[in-house]
C-alpha cells in the first residue's frame, strides 16, 4: 500500500512521522512519554500504558508517542518492542484494538518542553480527543493511571487533569512551600500539585498550547509543567485532579543540592506572574478542584532531612547575602528575617506571615529587576531552607492529616496577604 503524503507546512515533525500521521488519520486517545536515556525504566512505563489502553479503552483507537531527546542507551528501541505479556489478565470482554506507536526525536532546545511540543503537535494533527503525558522514569506507574488521566477528559468534559500523589511529608518541599500556595493564591484554584509531571489534557488544550510562542524560552528547557498548569488555569479550561497513589522516584534531602531546581522552578513561576498579571489581579480567594480516583494510604519511601545543615545555610545566607535580601525585601520583612537568622537554633520558627511576605517581596524584586535575576533567586535558597527547617522541626511527630492542615494554613496566609503583593507590585 502506498503511503499517503504527510501534511504540508509542518517542519516540527520529521517526514516519516508525517507519513505515519497520514496513515493513522485520527486517534481517540494518545499518551506521550518524553525521554532521554531512560532505558532502566521506560519499558515498564510503556507496558503500563499499553495495558491501560487495552484494559480501560479496548474499543478506542490509541496511540503511544515516545518523544526522545537523543538517547544513546536504547531507550526508543525498548518502547518500540514493548508489549503486554498476558492479555488474559485484563479481564476485558471487548475486542482489543492494536496500540499504534510513534517514536521520534524532537526538535528544538534540549528539554522536556521541546519533547512535549512534539507530542502536542502529533495530538493536534491526529485530532486526539484525550491525551496524557507521563514521565519516563516512573517506577510506580500502573495501568490505572492511564484511565485516571484520560477518562475525566474523554467522559467528563475536563480539559486538564493534574496528578494528586501521596508524598512523604518532607518530599516536594518546593511545591509545598512556594509553588502550591502561590499558584493557588494567584489563580484561584486549589491544584495541589501543579508541577507533578504527569498530566491529562484535551486535544483542544494541546492545540491551545501550540499557539503560544514560548518554545525558544526556558519553557522548552525546564518550565513546561508549571506553564501547562498556569496556561490551563488562565485560559478558561476545565481543570480537575486524579489521585494516582504514590509517585516513586528518587527523593532528595531538601537541604542538599536543590538550588538549581529551586532557581528553575521559581524563575518560571515569577515569569508567568508577569505574563498573567491582569488575570491574577482580579482573582480573589480560591475554590476546590474536582478530584477523581479512590484515595487510599500507601507506604512511602522515607526522606532523610538534615535540619542542622539547613539552619546553617540560612544563618550563613544572612551573613553573606544579606545585602541582596535588603534590596529584595521590604524593610520590615528584612528586619524580621535577619532577627530570625540571629536566633536560629533547633527550636526556631519561620512564621507563615514572614515567609509569605518573603516570597511576595522576591516576586516584586524579580519584576523590578532590582538585582540580577539569577543572583536574586540563588539568594532565595537559604531563606527557603530556613523555612523548610522550621517546618520540619514543627512536624516531626505530625501525621499526614496534620501536615496538610499546616499547609492549608500557609495557603490561607498567601491568600490573605495577596493585597500586600498587589500593593508592593504597584509601588
Describe the structure in your own words:
This protein is of the alpha/beta class. It has helices at 15-24, 42-56, 75-81, 112-125, 143-156, 173-187, 203-210, 218-221, 224-234, 259-275, 277-280, 307-320, 322-328, 331-342, 352-368, 373-395, 400-416, 418-426; strands spanning 29-35, 62-68, 100-105, 130-133, 160-166, 199-202, 239-246, 291-292. The chain has an eight-stranded mixed beta sheet, with helices on both faces. Helix 6 (173-187) runs parallel beside helix 10 and helix 15 (352-368) packs parallel to helix 18. The radius of gyration is 22 Å and the shape is globular.
Helical percent range? 40-55%
Proportion of residues in extended strands: 5-15%
Strand arrangement, major sheet: 3-2-1-4-6-5-7-8
Structural class: alpha/beta
What is the ordering of alpha helices and beta strands?
HEHEHEHEHEHEHHHEHHEHHHHHHH
**How many β-strand runs?**
8
pLDDT averaged over residues: 90
Amino acid at each position: 500500500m502506498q503511503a499517503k503524503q504527510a501534511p504540508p507546512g509542518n517542519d516540527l515533525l520529521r517526514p516519516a512521522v508525517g507519513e505515519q500521521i497520514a496513515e493513522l488519520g485520527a486517534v481517540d486517545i494518545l499518551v506521550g512519554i518524553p525521554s532521554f536515556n531512560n532505558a532502566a525504566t521506560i519499558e515498564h512505563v510503556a507496558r503500563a500504558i499499553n495495558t491501560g489502553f487495552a484494559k480501560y479503552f479496548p474499543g478506542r483507537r490509541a496511540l503511544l508517542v515516545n518523544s526522545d531527546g537523543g538517547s544513546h542507551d536504547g531507550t526508543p528501541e525498548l518502547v518500540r518492542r514493548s508489549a503486554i505479556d498476558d492479555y488474559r489478565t485484563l479481564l476485558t470482554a471487548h475486542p482489543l484494538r492494536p496500540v499504534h506507536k510513534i517514536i521520534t526525536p524532537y526538535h528544538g532546545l534540549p528539554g522536556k518542553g521541546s519533547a512535549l511540543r512534539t507530542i502536542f503537535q502529533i495530538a493536534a494533527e491526529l485530532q486526539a480527543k484525550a491525551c496524557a503525558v507521563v514521565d519516563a522514569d516512573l517506577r510506580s506507574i500502573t495501568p490505572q493511571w492511564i484511565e485516571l488521566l484520560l477518562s475525566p477528559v474523554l467522559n467528563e468534559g475536563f480539559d486538564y487533569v493534574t496528578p494528586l500523589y501521596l508524598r512523604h511529608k518532607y518530599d516536594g518541599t518546593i511545591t509545598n512551600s512556594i509553588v502550591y500556595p502561590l499558584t493557588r493564591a494567584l489563580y484561584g484554584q486549589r491544584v495541589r500539585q501543579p508541577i507533578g509531571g504527569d498530566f491529562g489534557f484535551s486535544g483542544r488544550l494541546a492545540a491551545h498550547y501550540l499557539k503560544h510562542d514560548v518554545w525558544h524560552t526556558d519553557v522548552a528547557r525546564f518550565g513546561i509543567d508549571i506553564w501547562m498548569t498556569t496556561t490551563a488555569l488562565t485560559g478558561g479550561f476545565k481543570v480537575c485532579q486524579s489521585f494516582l497513589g504514590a509517585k516513586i522516584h528518587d527523593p532528595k534531602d531538601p537541604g542538599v543540592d536543590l538550588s538549581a531546581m529551586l532557581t528553575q522552578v521559581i524563575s518560571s513561576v515569577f515569569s508567568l506572574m508577569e505574563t498573567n498579571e491582569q488575570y491574577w489581579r482580579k482573582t480573589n480567594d480560591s475554590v476546590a478542584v474536582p478530584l477523581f480516583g479512590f484515595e487510599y494510604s500507601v507506604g512511602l519511601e522515607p526522606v532523610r532531612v538534615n535540619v542542622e545543615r539547613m539552619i546553617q545555610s540560612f544563618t550563613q545566607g544572612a551573613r553573606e547575602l544579606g545585602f541582596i535580601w535588603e534590596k529584595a525585601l521590604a524593610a520590615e520583612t528584612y528586619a524580621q528575617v535577619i532577627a530570625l537568622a540571629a536566633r536560629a537554633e533547633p527550636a526556631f520558627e519561620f512564621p507563615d506571615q514572614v515567609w509569605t511576605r518573603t516570597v511576595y517581596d522576591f516576586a516584586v524584586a524579580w519584576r523590578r529587576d532590582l538585582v540580577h535575576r539569577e543572583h536574586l533567586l540563588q539568594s532565595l535558597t537559604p531563606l527557603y531552607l530556613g523555612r523548610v527547617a522550621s517546618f520540619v522541626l514543627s512536624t516531626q511527630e505530625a501525621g499526614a492529616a496534620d501536615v496538610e492542615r499546616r499547609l492549608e494554613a500557609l495557603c490561607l496566609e498567601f491568600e490573605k496577604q495577596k493585597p500586600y503583593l498587589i500593593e508592593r507590585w504597584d509601588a
